[in-house]
Amino acid sequence: MRQRVCFILIMIMAFTMAFAQDKQHGPQITFKNVVHDFGQFSEDDPYVSCVFEFTNTGDAPLVIHRALASCGCTVPTFPKEPVMPGQKGYITVSYNGKNRTPAPFQKSIRIMTNAYPEMAIIYIKGEMTESGITKEKTMLDR
């Protein structure tokens, strides 16, 4: 009986180690930058967008299942086809400040993939200023 228990424990440990090692292989998403700062922009032109570049640094095709923004004012667009090992991909993130109070902001975008770990997070930030206020005017006010 004792031998069976030991055998079962050894098998469980072996499967656990094999599974853990398997997570190191497969697709990997590596971003060039995980934060984009828009700086200041006027509420007169409240639409801004940027592109996040990533590379599949793994050894299997990378699939992005979804990209979820922390706010409805932020819309991510991602490739629907698999990104092959060594290939680059791009995620476009658009921010719509229309009908929002001029202020600094920071938004997160959760990227759900078939990589390990399954979720990566990228961020956008910036400051939408009131109509007619520019960076030069705010610097002079100080």
Q: Classify the beta-strand content into a percent band.
A: 35-45%
- Compute the CA-based radius of gyration: 22 Å
Specify the helix fraction band: 10-25%
Shape: elongated
Structural class: alpha+beta
Can you list the strand order of the major beta sheet? 1-3-6-5
| H/I helix tally | 2
Unreliable residue stretches: none
How many β-strand runs? 8
Spatial gap, N to C terminus: 80 Å
Largest sheet: 4 strands, antiparallel
Q: Element order, helices and strands?
A: HEEEEEEEEH
Mean pLDDT: 87
Organism: Candidatus Avibacteroides avistercoris
Signal peptide: 1-20
Pfam families: DUF1573
Keywords: Signal
Provide a brief overview of the structure.
By secondary structure, the protein is α+β, with helices and mostly antiparallel strands. About 20% of the residues lie in helices and about 45% in strands. The chain is elongated and about 80 Å long.
Question: What does this molecule look like?
Answer:
- 19% of the residues lie in helices and 43% in strands.
- It has helices spanning 2-22, 135-140, and strands at 29-31, 35-42, 47-56, 64-69, 74-77, 88-96, 104-113, 119-129.
- The chain has a 4-stranded antiparallel beta sheet with strand order 1-3-6-5, with no helix packed on it.
- The model has no long low-confidence stretch (mean pLDDT 87).
- This is DUF1573 domain-containing protein.
- Keywords: Signal.
